[in-house]
């Protein structure tokens, strides 16, 4: 998780540096798309802060009110980030773009816009490179989409999506702003703002989908369940594993419950010893499984 914090800090630094310059350039040049880009960077800055807060909260130790710990705090704050991207980033950019299309205003000299956008592209591109590099370390050879779907740590891919959307938005703004100024069509500047907003809306839906799944109690993969069942059934006291229930409390903690059929001739003490053996073997084989509850049928 420390690697993911590295990508979050790099994204935070990049967004913080360029958000203010975008707003200043947009105000001086009367550019709707630049204001939208400023909003985008401000929302991204707030998102990184919320992610860092969620990571910190998720590491709190268990107490009597939260016996399994606070790991799901990360999933909650990741979902909040997706809502902010949709509302403050996407919807606001679309609204501002439509307003600028309906009431277009001629853009002033866009030189400062191009300077700011070029610098922003360098900063965001560097942040994206770091985020992709850190995410690649966790993929273990899986395809990108498969790695995102199977990932239990939203902070690992959220920054990749945010920085990817930022780079795509900057390219769109640069192209349409150039056409808007060269062809004297101010509506194109508003169109750029709308496109940036739609990109953010798309990203927010993907992030919300993954964060919601984890927040609602996503369990371990089917192949992992099969391995755990076979591991339990290796014990001589077990007839078969009848049911396995699981949920991720955090990217590094799994709560596991097994319903197991034991041999009929075993007494209570023998079943207790078998349960202890199975619990230890599962924890040794799967370090992420922190809590193992075994219920004899």
UniProtKB/TrEMBL annotation:
InterPro entries named in the record: Cation_efflux, Cation_efflux_CTD_sf, Cation_efflux_TM, Cation_efflux_TMD_sf, SLC30A9
Gene3D superfamilies for the chain: Cation efflux protein transmembrane domain, Cation efflux protein, cytoplasmic domain
Localization (cell): Membrane
Name of the protein in its database record: Cation diffusion facilitator family transporter
The keyword Membrane is annotated on this UniProt entry: yes
Transmembrane segments: 7-28, 74-95, 111-132, 157-179, 191-208
Membrane topology: Multi-pass membrane protein
Keyword Transmembrane among record annotations: yes
Superkingdom in the source lineage: Bacteria
Pfam families: Cation_efflux
Keywords for this protein: Membrane, Transmembrane, Transmembrane helix, Transport
Chief localisation class: membrane
Cation efflux protein transmembrane domain residues: 10-216
Lineage: Bacteria, Pseudomonadati, Bacteroidota, Flavobacteriia, Flavobacteriales
Organism: Chryseobacterium gilvum
